[in-house]
Backbone:
């Protein structure tokens, strides 16, 4: 299960446009499988059509950077991004959280994906505004109804810190950072 979940986490860095695919929890499917097949077996046109633009790279890289900043113990400021890049940061942060949820060896689609105790303990050390903290607590219990009142920047922060906490519950901090740096390398390059 953890090998499959690891593949799903890597798939969460796929190159989809904002609004494509699921937002908070990704079902057990390969969301970018068609793109990969097009790249492997398709034409050069198919490969060129999947190349990310500057807004996509900026947004996806910023999402990974936010998770890394929380893991490093800093309270990051939401980056100033174009409206399209802001959509990409939210999509990538959501995908990272989905991947982190599915990496848990106890994950199953037929039960709530509550945060492991080690992640809850780590969250106690993180400084957050109250709206973000309330959302993170709701996400820790697998609830997402708290998203409706948050601004886009607050949603991104809640997704980033929730991702960090779930990864801390699974890996040592150094291993978590290593894995996220690998993800960052993928999303920041063309």
Residues:
């Amino acid at each position: 299960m953890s090998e499959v979940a690891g593949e799903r986490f890597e798939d969460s860095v796929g190159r989809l446009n904002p609004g494509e695919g699921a937002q908070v929890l990704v079902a057990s499917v390969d969301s970018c499988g068609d793109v990969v097949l097009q790249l492997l077996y398709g034409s050069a046109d198919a490969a060129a059509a999947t190349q990310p633009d500057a807004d996509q790279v900026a947004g996806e890289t910023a999402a990974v950077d936010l998770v890394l900043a929380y893991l490093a113990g800093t309270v990051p400021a939401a980056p100033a991004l174009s409206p399209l890049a802001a959509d990409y940061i939210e999509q990538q942060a959501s995908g990272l959280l989905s991947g982190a949820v599915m990496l848990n060896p106890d994950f199953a689609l037929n039960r709530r994906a509550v945060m492991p105790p080690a992640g809850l303990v780590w969250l106690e050390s993180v400084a957050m505004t109250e709206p973000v903290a309330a959302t993170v607590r709701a996400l820790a219990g697998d609830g997402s109804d708290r998203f409706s009142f948050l601004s886009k920047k607050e949603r991104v922060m809640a997704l980033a810190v929730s991702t960090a906490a779930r990864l801390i519950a699974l890996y040592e901090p150094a291993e978590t950072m290593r894995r996220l740096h690998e993800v960052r390398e993928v999303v920041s390059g063309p």
